[in-house]
Amino acid sequence: MKCKICQREAEEGDFCSLHATAYDNIVKKYEVWRRALKISWKEYLREIAQNSLTGEWARETARYLLNNEEKQDVKQS
Ligand SMILES: [Zn+2]
Question: Which residues does residue 9 pair with via DSSP β-bridges, in sequence order?
């Protein structure tokens, strides 16, 4: 199983340990952002993907999730 973002070997799930950690942090931080800013998951991911203060791992993970969710939206509509 390879990480879907960087093609490194993934220990479990879809991501390597570095991107899995970044993903966990993104999900946890969203709870805080949502309460404070009332932004959607997608808007939040865009913020992370564009924010120069965000770490490279988190930016890559956010970009991957954005691309993935676009595809899911297409299927739903
Ligand atoms: Zn990775």
Answer: 2
Residue 23 in domain: yes
> What is the whole-number distance in angstroms between the Cα of residue 55 and the centre of ligand 1?
13
Distance from Cα 76 to the centre of ligand 1, integer Å: 27
pTM summary value: 0.81
39 CA to middle of ligand 1, Å?
A: 26
Number of structural domains the chain divides into: 1
State the residue range of the domain holding 53: 19-76
In a domain, 51, yes or no: yes
pLDDT in tens, 30-58: 999 999 999 999 999 999 999 988 899 99
Q: HSE (CB half, 13 Å, CA atoms) of 21? A: 6
Domain-embedded: residue 52: yes
